[in-house]
Every structure is written in structure tokens, then in C-alpha cells.
Amino acid sequence: MTRERLWRNELLRQIALKKEDVIVDVGCGTGSFVTLLKQAEPDATVIGVDPDGDVLKLAQRKATKGKVAIPFLQGFLSEDLLESLPRPSKIVSSLVFHQVPLPEKRRLLKLIRNLLPQNGELHIADYGLQRTLTMRLLFRMTVQMLDGVGDTQPNADGVLPEIMKEVGFATVEEVAIIRTMTGSISLYRAKA
Description:
By secondary structure, the protein is of the alpha/beta class. The chain has helices at 4-15, 32-40, 53-65, 79-82, 102-115, 133-141, 143-147, 153-156, 159-166, and strands spanning 22-26, 45-50, 72-74, 90-94, 121-127, 171-180, 183-191.
């Protein structure tokens, strides 16, 4: 229902992987996208982060099945969690921000901005501004029914780009809008 293959492929193209990249996937879940990243550029360093240990076991199995080696870190994104790793050049997150409260959206985006070097990049695929009545209704009937209104409404109101600018990203752009049966998913790129 979320046209996952479409937005994942668009996000992969947007990231424009290079072999020297160090990429952290925040909220990597079951590892589908982080595995795709590593398969697309085997020489890049790709790291998955998620607080759910059971989900990370599934992610590890996907990576093994996909014949790629990916370190998975259990926990919420923090400087401490990443301190033993090389500094990321790019951070990616998909379908995470709509599930967290507004103060946590701000905290996470500020932390990501601080973790990235100058010209480092943040790439997000998530529910963004629901521009049409149809998209708002689909979003309300699916995402908000499952995840609640409190955390999801700021995304539907288009808050993510505003927060990215507030926390100090030099450039922020909405690269694509993908209409789905659950509302529209926006692809964002922000440069530190």
C-alpha cells in the first residue's frame, strides 16, 4: 500500500552512493533498505541502527541472505552509540519520523545535524505534507488510525523541512512526492 519499491528506489538514486560513504540508517527496522544500500555500493560503510533487538535479528538475516556484511547497532540514535564508528557522511531514515513526538523529531534532527560533517547529507523518506483532500483522507484512515494523531499530524502539516532548517541544515529540499494508498510520502534531502 505504501508503494515501497518505488520510493525505496527513488531514495536510493537520491542518495547517490559513493564507495567512500559512511551511511547510517536510523530506524533501519527489518533491514530491507540498509541491505539494498550495501548491495548497491559494497565498498561503502553501511550501518543499521534500531532500538528493537528482535527486529534487528530479522535485519541481520536479510543482510546474510543478501550476501552483505552490515553492522547493526541496537539502541536509539545517540553520539554514544556511534562513538566507536567512523563519522557518517550520510544519514538516512525511512518511515520513522511520523511515529515520534514533535520534541523527539526536533531532538533527532538536531543530533543528526551535529553528527554530520560540513556538506554531509540527510535523506528522509516519510509522510510529509498531505497536500490534497484525497491524500489527507487516506493518511487519516490508515496511518493515523494505526499510529495515532498526536505524533503523525505534524508530518501531515509539513513540519519536517521547517525543523531541518531550524536545527541548522544549510539546504533542505523536498525531492519527490509519492502518492500512496496511505497518503503521500515525501523524499527530503538536507545538507549540513
